[in-house]
Design a protein that fits this description.
The protein has 21 helices and no strands. The N and C termini lie far apart (about 75 Å). The chain has about 500 residues and is mainly α.
Length: about 500
């Protein structure tokens, strides 16, 4: 009874001071600290819901570093800690996930990162970069794996996914056609030249949109006719249009991959939607969107960015080959990459590339910094669940929301992000990295749940079959007892006695 009074006496004056100083970024966390703590204790997955709803709107800048520290760095690990305690103490009797030994690869990668930071002489504050880029995404993955009702958790995310998708599409289009309307918080480096939404890059924007719209489209295809279904389909179509306006070839490739995937899963609906949108886009391209079409053509045939990628990718490859086993150490790419920049054919490195150029390949960066060993631990869970996905797909229903189609739909953003990551360094997009591992966590739960249910059903079937065989054998033995022959007046044939002898020996 005294605890609420004590909290009021402490938090009341603290809130008053923060409001008086107009420290609004601290007011909301303090005001909602207690309700959020209660919510996390009751439902740890709420950490991911809050994180997903809050983080897209704040760019990674110094003035918002406390938002990143509280919401990104602390919230999901806190939720994981509560879920892990519940799992260890068996507080929740309906835990479904049984994490595999292989998944400790994420823990090993985290330990390697910490050791590498101190072994290569980095400041201890570099640990926060490791936390934001790797440990928090891993924590989100583990939180999904330990969720007691991951199906309900995925359904809880869909309304938030819909709202964020619509907002990102609207902000992206407004930034292209009427940029002065948007607040300065979303005026990014590429503002006015490409659509990036609230993300500082077309690559992260494309990854986030693809992850959201494929889920919404799958939901629409498994929902009854009505306003909601129409809204979901229109959101998917709008998202595909915004992917075109990113004017980024890797994002275009990922968008084409998604469209082909949806044509494979839902051929009639997707073909009809495409046949409706394409004529409209063609008409607009030759009327109000002539400038955009010309810019898209220019971007498609531009060689400047390609030459940059050639120089920087060659430097990353040479860095990896110089130390292939353990790499150059975490966060050491920009420290040493300039030493490996050289002329490639007719392309010579520029002064800007040598002084400020960085990697444009997410996975090549990990290879160069952590070597084959670190990269293997990082990518191992993805490969593991891809293999078991192939085993689980034939066991899932053909139709419905929880069908094999959902599993394929959830792999599309994974493949798309790997594709986009070949030309963009997504390490600086914490939201995108975390979404990747959230998605993989849902895939892991779906695959493992199906495989374990199938194995359990098979064991029950085998036990039932064995019991039936044993009962049949007992019945035959009872018919072969001496009392049976006496009661039958000794009328049994020699063949029957021979069969009984064989039965008894059996």
């Amino acid at each position: 009874m005294g605890l609420p009074i004590l909290l009021g006496l402490v938090l009341g004056p603290l809130l008053a001071i923060l409001i008086a100083k107009e420290e609004w970024l601290f007011v909301l966390p303090v005001a909602f600290a207690i309700p959020i703590a209660i919510l996390l204790i009751r439902y740890p997955f709420a950490a991911i819901i809050i994180w997903m709803a809050v983080m897209p709107w704040f760019p990674f800048q110094d003035e918002y570093k406390y938002v990143y520290f509280i919401v990104h760095n602390l919230l999901i690990p806190l939720g994981l800690g509560i879920a892990f305690l519940s799992y260890i103490l068996r507080v929740n009797k309906h835990q479904l996930a049984r994490p595999k030994l292989m998944e400790l690869a994420t823990v090993v990668f985290g330990i390697m990162g910490v050791v590498s930071i101190f072994a290569t002489g980095h400041h201890w504050k570099t640990l926060f970069k490791l936390l934001a880029r790797s440990l928090v995404p891993f924590a989100a993955y583990w939180l999904i794996r330990l969720s007691n009702d991951w199906q309900q958790a995925l359904k809880c995310l869909l309304p938030i996914v819909l709202l964020i998708s619509l907002a990102e599409c609207a902000i992206g289009l407004v930034s292209w056609f009427a940029p002065a309307v948007l607040p300065s918080i979303w005026h990014m480096r590429l503002f006015g030249s490409r659509i990036t939404g609230t993300f500082n890059g077309a690559g992260p924007y494309g990854c986030v949109l693809i992850f959201f719209i494929v889920l919404l489209y799958h939901k629409a295809m498994n929902h009854e006719k009505g306003t909601l279904k129409t809204l979901l389909i229109l959101t998917f179509a709008l998202g595909m249009v915004c992917i075109f306006f990113t004017f980024t070839r890797a994002v275009w490739g990922a968008g084409i991959l998604v469209l082909l995937g949806m044509l494979f899963l839902y051929p009639r609906a997707t073909a009809l939607l495409t046949s409706l949108i394409l004529p409209i886009m063609v008409i607009l391209s030759f009327t109000v969107l002539t400038t955009e079409l010309a810019y898209a053509y220019e971007r498609l045939h531009s060689e400047d960015t390609t030459q940059d990628r050639v120089i920087l990718s060659t430097a990353g490859k040479d860095m990896f080959l110089a130390r292939p086993i353990l790499g150059w150490g975490y966060e050491n790419y920009d420290r040493y990459d300039w030493k490996f920049m050289r002329r490639v054919g007719n392309i010579a490195p520029t002064k800007w590339q040598i002084q400020k150029g960085t990697s444009h390949n997410t996975y090549l960066t990990i290879l160069a910094e952590m070597g084959v060993v670190g990269f293997t631990f990082y990518i191992l869970p993805t490969i593991w669940w891809l293999i078991f996905t192939i085993k689980a797909i034939p066991l899932l229903p053909r139709k419905g929301f929880w069908s094999r189609r959902l599993l394929i739909v959830m792999w599309l953003p994974i493949i798309a992000q790997i594709l986009i990551g070949q030309t963009s360094d997504l390490r600086f997009s914490y939201y995108t990295l975390t979404l990747f591992w959230i998605n993989l966590g849902f895939i892991a739960n779906m695959v493992q749940n199906r495989l374990e249910q199938t194995e359990s059903n098979w064991n029950k079937h085998s036990d039932t079959k064995n019991i039936a065989q044993q009962l049949q054998l007992i019945e035959r033995k009872q018919l072969c007892t001496p009392s049976y022959f006496n009661s039958s007046g000794g009328s049994a044939t020699q063949n029957s006695e021979a069969e009984c002898s064989a039965t008894n020996k059996g």
